[in-house]
Design goal:
Helix 2 packs across helix 3, helix 3 packs antiparallel against helix 4 and helix 3 packs antiparallel against helix 5. A hairpin with a 5-residue loop joins strand 20 and strand 21. The chain is α+β, with helices and mostly antiparallel strands. It is globular. About 20% of the residues lie in helices and about 30% in strands. Strands 1, 2, 3, 4, 6, 7, 8, 9, 17 and 18 form a ten-stranded mixed β-sheet that branches. Strands 5, 10, 11, 12, 13, 16, 19, 20 and 21 form a nine-stranded mixed β-sheet that branches. Strands 14-15 form a two-stranded antiparallel ribbon.
């Protein structure tokens, strides 16, 4: 079996700022940066988020030649226990840093679940014709960084949208969410990365820049805007963080000469199905999409999962991955649209739940399925068919931010970025999101699989065919049910 990616996830935020007050730029202390990229994956997704902040008046600055673009600060990522370490007598019993981080930071994302749900429904809730994918946690991280460099009303609007009462609380919790999400054992990867790109010609508040480097694991770079060497450094960094999945998008990126600052945030997901699909079992079936019927390739496996959940207007189920992440599929009932399903209270309740895996209770000393927030659980031997996917999309985030109350940062007369720039000249002009999703049968044949029907004494008697052959919603969750990526498929 091949070991190519089936779902790779990457996100990038790009905030560009232009400043008018020239002075030497601060330099952050340089740190060591370590990260390892592997090719084997079962799930892979790529996402680019881009934003531009522009100065609202003539910059009046001066130009100073720079000989070399350079990295000023690079974070040292945690070194997680590698998969092979579990089979080495010398390392098998050593602590697992990723497991310890998850325990230490459990619950860190609970305060942000309202924002995760809000931004997901803003971007996907009315998408009923095209395919789309986004990353709630990465948009959160990028927005938290934006709050860090904002002041006054601008900052307060961002804090309110993130459901936070203070910047100090947000900063601490964002750091914990980063630690909670990050994981790299050589097979299963969830790797966030942030960066700050400075012009050599303009001043920046040292405290704000240092805070981004220390609390958000941000790399800091400095160079001459418009210099091809600086452009190449930008593209090289992005391609490294995204595993080359977004090379076609990234290769056209460059700094304009009047750019003062750029913020970038990436998220890369690479994981494997708990039980791989076989290419020999693929089927050509009709998908009843928003644009009409279409014959596409479906991944198929008999008796693949043992439980599903249902509400009044939809059913949903999870496909476990090798290291415990979960990929959820939500299929509206026939006659119910994606938009109608996502407006359902039970659907929103699921998105906001810290641990939706607890669907069991005890009755008369026996484990039984229980109703859960407008949904119920059923056991069955499920013959599963899901579309094989490879699609891209681009979304504008501006209206979604406005709808969540983040307005003044987009207004050249009201935006306040004084904590970083010392004035009120810069504003968020544009923020877009481009993404790619690939899902196929690849995985690890030797992987162990933990059945989520723990406590069931006997296999269920019912056998059903679950064919995802009409528009659906998917959600990929990490530790503590943090929503890493979400999307809708209308036309595979």
């Amino acid at each position: 079996m091949k070991s190519e990616p089936i779902m790779d996830a990457v996100t990038e935020l790009d905030d560009e700022l232009i400043l008018d007050d020239p002075a030497p730029a601060m330099r952050a202390a340089k740190k060591k940066y370590t990260t390892v990229w592997a090719a084997c994956a079962l799930l892979a997704m790529a996402l680019i988020i881009g934003g531009i902040l522009l100065f609202a008046r003539d910059n009046g600055g001066y130009h100073k030649p720079v000989a070399l673009a350079a990295a000023l600060a690079e974070p040292e990522y945690p070194r997680d226990k590698q998969w092979e370490d579990y089979y080495n007598n010398a390392t098998a019993n050593l602590p697992d840093p990723a497991f310890e981080r998850r325990l230490a930071n459990r619950g860190a994302a609970d305060g942000f679940r309202g924002f995760f749900t809000d931004i997901t429904l803003q971007l996907l809730g009315e998408e009923d014709t095209e395919n789309a994918v986004m990353s709630p946690v990465n948009i959160f991280m990028a927005t938290a960084m934006l709050a860090e460099i904002s002041g006054g009303e601008t900052r307060q609007e961002i804090l309110d949208a993130l459901h936070m009462d203070s910047l100090e609380t947000l900063r601490g919790q964002a750091h914990k969410v980063w630690d909670l999400v990050y994981h790299d054992n050589g097979i299963d990867k969830v790797i966030p990365a942030n960066s700050l790109w400075l012009s050599q010609d303009y001043p920046y508040a040292e405290e704000a820049v240092s805070m981004l480097a220390e609390q958000y694991y941000a790399s800091v770079f400095q160079g001459e805007m418009g210099d091809p060497a600086y452009d190449e450094l930008l593209r090289s960094w992005l391609n490294a963080q995204t595993g080359g999945l977004l090379k076609e998008n990234i290769d056209s990126l460059q700094f304009e000469p009047d750019t003062v600052l750029r913020l970038l945030s990436t998220l890369y997901l690479q994981t494997k199905w708990g039980t791989p699909f076989s290419e020999d079992e693929n089927r050509e079936l009709v998908f009843h999409g928003s644009q009409g019927d279409k014959t596409v390739t479906f991944l198929h496996a008999d008796d693949y999962i043992r439980e599903y959940y249902y509400g009044d207007r939809f059913i949903f189920f999870q496909v476990p991955t090798f290291q415990g992440s979960r990929v959820w599929f939500f299929l509206p009932d026939e006659g119910v649209t994606l938009t109608e399903m996502m407006a359902d209270e039970a659907f929103r309740a699921f998105l906001e739940e810290p641990d939706p895996g607890h669907y069991y209770g005890e009755e008369n000393g026996q484990t039984v399925f229980v109703s859960y927030k407008g949904t119920s659980t059923a056991a069955a031997r499920i013959n599963l068919s899901i579309p094989k996917l490879d699609f891209s999309c681009t979304q504008d985030l501006g209206d979604s931010l406005t709808n969540l109350g983040i307005r003044s940062v987009q207004d050249p007369k009201k935006a306040d970025l004084s904590p970083l720039l010392g004035g009120k000249g810069a504003y968020l002009q544009q923020m877009t999101q481009s993404s790619r999703l690939i899902m196929d049968e690849e995985g690890v044949s030797a992987a162990s699989y933990v059945d989520y029907l723990v406590g069931a004494a006997l296999p269920p008697d019912e056998e059903i065919d679950l064919v995802v052959d009409r528009p659906y919603f998917f959600l990929i969750t990490g530790p503590d049910n943090v929503p890493l990526f979400a999307g809708v498929v209308n036309d595979p």
